[in-house]
Amino acid sequence: MTQARQAPLTGIRVLDLSRVLAGPWCTQNLADLGADVIKVERPKLGDDTRAWGPPYLKDADGHDTSEAAYYLSTNRNKRSIEIDLASSEGADLVRELAKHCDILVENFKVGGLKQYGLDYESMKAEFPHLIYCSITGFGQTGPFAERPGYDFMIQGMGGLMSITGERDGLPGAGPQKAGVAVTDIITGMYASLAIVAAIRERDRSGLGQHLDIALLDCHVAMLANQNLNYMTSGVTPQRAGNAHQNVVPYQVFKTSDGFMIVAVGNDSQFRSYCQAIERADLASDPKYLTNRQRIINRDELIPLLEVTMASGKRDEWIAKLEAGGVPCGPIQSIDQVFDHPQVVARQIWKSMPHPIAGSTPTTASPMIFSDTPVEYRRAPPTLGQHTDEILQELLGKRAI
């Protein structure tokens, strides 16, 4: 009989001193992969996001609990312990726990943990095996290192808002932030990857190291092709609304009864698109034969397509374009997303037992493993839920 394989990070223990989103998103990824994540929280207050409501999780009688939806979104599969880092006893307790952990994640301001003796330089000699991940706004070096950094301000400083929003001169023009805290999320993802890589390297060297992960760095990195558009041409990218800077047509179109997306990725798809909307004449026009020509002549082509698309119904266009192999889709609200048959089939809405509410919804991890699937072991913990359990298990003592 084949022995069951364990989750990828089984046996790895994480001491999580982070709060809000970027750090907790990182550690939730690690927890989903099987790591034992110990979330250290301030006594009586806990993670800031516990109070970021409404909405709050409701109990069986429909009343609000103390668990904010924001907090629930990013703390699955963890255990919570209350420790006052500002006290000498609390700082000593964190050091004791660190002895039994493989990874420490923190998102204090640069130098913020030094006063407690919990910064990397203070701990590396005593814990040479420890992988210490610092998540900050601007990193450990540079003229902005000591400044606090927040997702919204980084979206502005990092360039995303300069390319997000409607074009100048059109209704609603102006810079626009993303609808979720994408800087925090992508930073958490980069931090997760860096930690897994550091674990692999430690398998060879036996040594930990300091990971310096900055919101600004991660944000700029995720601009991808927009960075290279500028770096190779010297031309600063501008806002394009729902259009694509490098591919035409690749945008939102208004139909007679709603909005939809057409994502033509190559010249063959453009010919199929024109055939499906009964504008084969556009596909044969020399001005639109190639994507390069369509970009050059965008301002002439798009109004012609807009008139045609506005003459038909959204779902009818989608059926025709899908039949022709043209990538397209509707713009859906979040409730429609969770009702979509593909989302339902992939079981992205999950429910977990919760000690206060009975159960809590959670969004499934998108990491799909054939033989070591993500396990939904624990609902996001209540404040200090596991304090006694952790202290007894790791240190053989009770709460102070």
TrEMBL record:
<dbReference type="InterPro" id="IPR023606">
    <property type="entry name" value="CoA-Trfase_III_dom_1_sf"/>
</dbReference>
<dbReference type="GO" id="GO:0008410">
    <property type="term" value="F:CoA-transferase activity"/>
</dbReference>
<dbReference type="InterPro" id="IPR044855">
    <property type="entry name" value="CoA-Trfase_III_dom3_sf"/>
</dbReference>
<protein>
    <submittedName>
        <fullName>Crotonobetainyl-CoA:carnitine CoA-transferase CaiB-like acyl-CoA transferase</fullName>
    </submittedName>
</protein>
<keyword id="KW-0808">Transferase</keyword>
<dbReference type="Pfam" id="PF02515">
    <property type="entry name" value="CoA_transf_3"/>
</dbReference>
<dbReference type="InterPro" id="IPR050483">
    <property type="entry name" value="CoA-transferase_III_domain"/>
</dbReference>
<dbReference type="InterPro" id="IPR003673">
    <property type="entry name" value="CoA-Trfase_fam_III"/>
</dbReference>
